[in-house]
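User: I'm putting together a small comparison set for a docking exercise, and I want a reference complex before I start. The sequence is below, and the ligand is NAI. Could you produce the 3D structure with the ligand included, as structure tokens?
Assistant: Of course. I'll restate your input first, then give the structure tokens for the complex.
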Amino acid sequence: MTISYEGQVAIVTGAGNGLGRSHALELAKRGAKVVVNDLGGARDGSGASSDAAQEVVRLIEEAGGEAFAHGANVAKFDEVQDMVQQAMDKWGRVDILINNAGILRDKSFAKMDLADFQLVMDVHVMGTVNCTKAVWDIMREQNYGRIVVTTSSSGMYGNFGQSNYGAAKMAVLGFMNTLVLEGAKNNIHVNALAPTAGTRMTEDLMPPEIYNMLTAESVTAGALTLCHKDSPTRMILCAGAGGYASTRLFETDGIFLPEAQQTPEQVLENWEGVCDTSNQSELESGAKQSEKFLTKAMAYVQSQQ
Ligand code: NAI
């Protein structure tokens, strides 16, 4: 089976460098028309330049593909809307959105300015929200859409010096979980990619031999499985150095305590039962948790009658 994107239109944010560049090149190679978005700033988000995005467009066109560059700052909704409008004017649809643009402003929380926290949230969280909002109605109307958010192991598990980045990367998963539910009836699938790659974002964090194993292309192979027509939805796919895994959120079955025992002492006393993973499950929405607790409470009430 060959995965093709022939006839599809894709927007890849932050596609001038690193992972976004690799995603854009591979999508174009497989037939997609691509909007190569990039603000062209430095790793910390300062500055702007269209050079990197233009170079990616040049490479796509040289290989016989179709693309245009757009310098929208994803944190600014009006600029994002302009980008999406240009894609609609040129190609009439948007099938794929890969929310990839990102920056770093690392510091321990004690030393971090709130401005550095806010900027990282603006680019990763509001950037993802803005781009998704700008394509959402289009995808709903065409009854088709594939959206990828880019999370990180730093968000899912924590990383020293990245409280801002970690908060932002976990936030996009919360965003995904609800959009999965709201997009389902219009065939909109939303998935998350958790990459590990040697890019300018990580180059000073690892020795060259490791950096060279962590290719962007190995991550892109995973990214493309999240945005093709038979893609899953609500998947968190981790990819790096040729390794592919899925992070999943499970909840233990838990315990029920009758009213007289609903005290901190009793909760602690039953900690083993609270944490027992033997009957854990994946919940498909928040309501399923309330349902589980209420089922246990009702069973108790009935047992007392
Ligand atoms: P990169 O720094 O090589 O590329 C990011 C691109 O986003 C740059 O071209 C930059 O100009 C663009 N960008 C930044 N702010 C923007 C804005 N406001 N509007 C439009 N474009 C903007 O970084 P890399 O490594 O390719 O990262 C891509 C994504 O993957 C990011 O979301 C990052 O957080 C995530 N990630 C990367 C990991 C890695 O190991 N490289 C690990 C986990 C997540």
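Residues 13-14, 16-20, 37-41, 43, 45, 52, 73-75, 100-103, 123, 127, 150, 152, 195-197, 199-202 surround NAI (CB under 6 Å). Residues 9-246 form a domain with the Rossmann fold fold (CATH 3.40.50.720).
User: Thanks, that's exactly what I needed.
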